[in-house]
Amino acid sequence: MSYFNSMNVSASALTAQRLRMDIISQNIANANTTKTENGKPYRRKVAVFEQGKEPFGTLLNDYLGKYEGSKGVRVSSIIEDNSPFRKVYDPNHPDADKEGYVEMPNVTIIEEMVNMISANRSYEANVTAINTSKSIALKALEIGK
Predict the structure, then answer these.
(1) What are phi and psi of 99, to 5 degrees?
(2) How sure is the predictor about 70, in pLDDT bands with cuts at 50, 70 and 90?
(3) Phi and psi at residue 128, to the nearest 5°
């Protein structure tokens, strides 16, 4: 694995975790949104990660035994969580049904905060990996002095 390849892997993880944090923030912001454009409550979104796609040349090198390492991570899609909406009894709410229940989004603030902490820690770990790579490169340059 080359020096720049390790930085590229960490940089791709930083981008993916930043997008994950953006989605989590959107979920938290819409935790009480009972009506969206389609007339339904907001549905929680989740980022799906996958290994970065490798170009044909890299796959050919792998086949020939010249392995270059991982290409990092990327967000393959953003999916909606299909878990059921929460029903809350609030007969004074404008979106309440005949029995006084309101369908609320399937967002749980505690779960979103745990996911936010996890994404934040992953982001910090990748920043540390980049800083360590930079430090190693600087030390290697000092050897030549």
Answers:
(1) -85, -5
(2) low
(3) -60, -40
Per-residue pLDDT band at 64 (split at 50, 70, 90): low
Q: Would 17 be classed as within a structural domain?
A: yes
The string of DSSP codes covering 71-140 is: --EEEEEEEE--SPPEEEE-TTSTT--TTSEEEE-S--HHHHHHHHHHHHHHHHHHHHHHHHHHHHHHHH
What's the CATH number where 63 sits?
Answer: 1.10.287
Please state, in angstroms and rounded to a whole number, the distance separating the CA atoms of residues 90 and 102: 6
What six digits make up the tokens of 79?
């999916």
Counting the structural domains of the chain, the total is 1
Query: Phi then psi for 77, rounded to 5 degrees?
Result: -165, 165
